[in-house]
Design brief:
Layout lengths: L3 H19 L7 H16 L3 H7 L1 H13 L1 H6 L1 H6 L1 H25 L4 H7 L6 H11 L3 H25 L5 H20 L4 H28 L1
Helix pairs in contact: 1-2, 7-8, 7-11, 7-12, 8-10, 9-10, 9-12, 10-11, 11-12
Length: 223
């Protein structure tokens, strides 16, 4: 049973990807369908999550390689990045602030305590950075990771509807939106809109993590 979790994860993703290729609707994105399949299997089989986490440790380690691979479209679109670095820089800064502030307001609305608030506020920052920020400000690391995942999946699922409703079709705007709101999942999704959008998303995701590191303590101190 040592490889049970790894096998289930790979099979779930391959099935979810094949299903999405046949029915390319936002609610059928592979990461969401695969997550549902994996959770269902774990619950039905009563397989311990702790053991599952150990089984998929190889995939977890490969996440770093996957993030580095996102640098390829960045390299190919470097001239575009240089040309539009000002709107990318300031656009990412504004969206990062709005993402942090929306988390704080949401926590205030639901009257969460400070530890949950500090975990929720970094929901739109990529997981490794979000966890570190949460630790520094007194939040709950595991809870922060959950909020980041929820934010990423929600953005990937609802993003296409919002883009269509707001009539946003430019790669620059799409890249900044996905990179800041849905981190790695958003950057992966932005590839569907072209390499230019993916390159901008990759840059925005990185800048968002940097900006959030400075802005989060300031927002908490002020409010």
């Amino acid at each position: 049973m040592k490889w049970f979790g790894l096998v289930i994860t790979i099979i779930a993703y391959l099935l979810a990807r094949k299903f999405y290729q046949r029915f390319p609707y936002p609610f059928f994105v592979p990461v969401l369908i695969a997550t549902v399949i994996i959770i269902s299997v774990l619950l039905l089989s009563d397989y311990p999550y702790e053991q599952y986490a150990k089984d998929v440790s190889l995939i977890t380690e490969l996440l770093g390689v996957a993030i580095v691979a996102l640098g390829y479209p960045l390299y190919k679109q470097w001239k575009v990045i240089q040309k539009f670095w000002i709107p990318i820089f300031f656009g990412t800064f504004i969206v990062t602030y709005l993402g942090l502030e929306s988390g704080r307001m949401l926590a205030k609305w639901f009257q969460f305590d400070d530890s949950v608030t500090y975990s929720l506020i970094v929901k739109s920052v990529t997981t490794p950075v979000a966890i570190e920020i949460t630790s520094e400000i007194g939040g709950i690391r595991a809870l922060a990771a959950v909020f980041v995942m929820i934010a990423g999946i929600s953005c990937v699922v609802l993003g296409p509807f919002l883009l269509k409703w707001l009539k946003i079709d430019q790669p620059l705007e799409i890249g900044i939106g996905y990179g800041c709101a849905a981190h790695v999942l958003g950057t992966s999704k932005s590839l569907e809109f072209g390499e230019e959008a993916a390159a901008v998303s990759s840059v925005s995701m990185t800048l968002c993590a940097i900006f959030a590191s400075f802005l989060t303590p300031v927002i908490i101190a002020l409010f």
